[in-house]
Each structure stands twice: as structure tokens, then as C-alpha cells.
Amino acid sequence: MTERLITHVRHVALAVPDFEKQRAFFTDMWKLTEAETDSGVSFLAAEGSPENYVVRLRRAEEKRIDLVSFGAASPADVDALADRLIRSGVAMISEPGAVDTPGGGYGTRFFDVDGRTIEVSADVAVRAHRKVEEKESVPVRLSHVVLNTPDLERTRAWYERHLSFALSDTLMHPRMGEVMHFMRCNPAHHSIALAKGPHTSLHHVSFEMRGLDEYMRGTGRLLRAGVRKIWGPGRHLAGNNTFSYFMDPHGNTLEYTTELEMLDEDAWHPHMYDFSDPGVTDQWGTANPMDEFVAKESFNDPDRGCFVAPPL
């Protein structure tokens, strides 16, 4: 594997037709903080995160993923990554240069093998953040992003080769074969996961809570408010993290989680887990059963942003 130049996941950018409804959901229900807003764009922060924002929301005629953003340690690493991508024939969107979004910085953009826009940036200013207090059911940070792909092995190979992500674990099913790869760019079990789906789309975006109590309080708050729950609460085996999945107003799946496993990367060996085993999908046995109807909820709509760079 080539040198790892990506450090962590920064944010995900979403475009939606009903901007005001989605914005209200993220602030009032999901408990993100609007850091900045301007003419149909909202930058939403997590209270415990030094990132200027963890979700960027944009008004658009069609729903799509605008981009997934990752961090790098330095501008030199951004340059090195861009050079590696260009030499490998990856489709570039922009050469390394100044980033014109809150926090600034130095970054580059390119398409992944499925046509998603990926951004990698460094030297982004740190947001004034705070310690999330006990019993406070607000997201601390962005945990991970899961992406649907119609060609699971091709997409895994692309992220391994070009961005030096490492495989942590795999889910398989006796009838369907391998269905999900958990990929890491630091000791956290996964910063992204790749799911086998019928088309390229967003599977879900996950947000880390302070702890178990705060995770359960957040789950309960959303249930009481009538937000549609898809699956949970429970605890996965792969990653050992808790999960509660909900549907946002535009049909995107969002997750509250906590206690994602931190790995000793030098000693770790990937597992192959059979997710037809109920103890794999939910160690606690508290979630509604995983079945084809639950799984289908996260197929989402085919993404309209494939190989089309977002306007900002």
C-alpha cells in the first residue's frame, strides 16, 4: 500500500430541493449548529468538533451528494496526493489551491471510480468548539460515511490504491456474497464503508454522540418527535459501535452512534462476518430485525451527481 496521506473525514455535502425543510431538520431535530449560511447554502457544525462544519447543505433542483471531504496533514500532502492521482489517471476536478469555504485551507477535488466528488484539504482553520456535557444529546462529531456502489470490489480496490484506505472488516451473506467493506484511514474502525447496492448513492451518514446515555437520549428524542426510525437501537459486531438509523426529509439515512472501535493497526486482521447471524448485525438483540425491507431503505435514490462536479 502506498503512503497514507488522508487523516480523517471532514464533512459531507448534500444538495436538496426543499432546502428550508432539510435545514430545519438538521438544526431542530438532529441538533447540528448552523455556523454560516448564505443564499441557499448552510454550513452545519457539530458542537464538539473542531471542523468548521460536518454537513454542507445546498438548495438544488435535484437531490444529490455534492461531495465527501477528507483531511490531510499538510499542503505538501495534498500536493503529493494530487500528483499521485494525476499520474494514475484519476479524473481531476481542480488542481490543488485555496479552498473558498468556512475555515479556508488548501485542497483539491477529483472523482472517485463511481463518479462521486471527493475533496481533500489541509490547513483548514479550527472552529471554536466545546466539550459536550453529560446528558447532552447532540452530535459531537461526524463519525463516518457509508456509500452504495454497484461494483463493491472495484470501489474497494480504488480506495485502497488511490487513497490508501485499509480494510478493517467485511460483511457477507450466504446468498449474496460480500455486501459491505469497512475502510479506515486512521485507527478508527472505519471512516467510510462501502455497501453493495443497485446504484451509486448515499447509504448513510453517521454522527458520534458523547456516550451511551447521550446516544440513547438522542434516539429517544427523535422517536418522541415522530422522526421515522429505520433500524435500532442496537450494537453492531463489526466496529462494536451502537446504531440508531433514521430517515431525513429527503430520504437520506442518518445514524446516531457511539463507541466506534479503535484499532491497533499493526496487529489488526480483517474479519469476515456473516450478517445473516443476528448477533453480527446487533449484539444486544434490541433492534428490530435486519431484513430485506430494512436493507432496502438505505439503497436511496440513484445519485444525480455522478461525474458532475458541484457548483461550489
From TrEMBL:
Q: Please give the CDD domains that the UniProt record associates with this protein.
A: BphC5-RrK37_N_like (cd08362)
* Keyword Nucleotide-binding applies: no
Keywords carried by this UniProt record? Metal-binding
Q: Does the keyword Transmembrane helix apply?
A: no
Identify the Gene3D superfamilies for this entry: 2,3-Dihydroxybiphenyl 1,2-Dioxygenase, domain 1
Record domain VOC: where: 8-123, 141-259
InterPro entries hit by this protein: Glyas_Bleomycin-R_OHBP_Dase, Glyas_Fos-R_dOase_dom, MMCE/EMCE_epimerase, VOC_core
Q: Name the Pfam families for this protein.
A: Glyoxalase
Which parts form a coiled-coil structure per UniProt?
Answer: none
- Could you name the domain of life of the organism this protein comes from? Bacteria
Q: What is this protein called?
A: VOC family protein
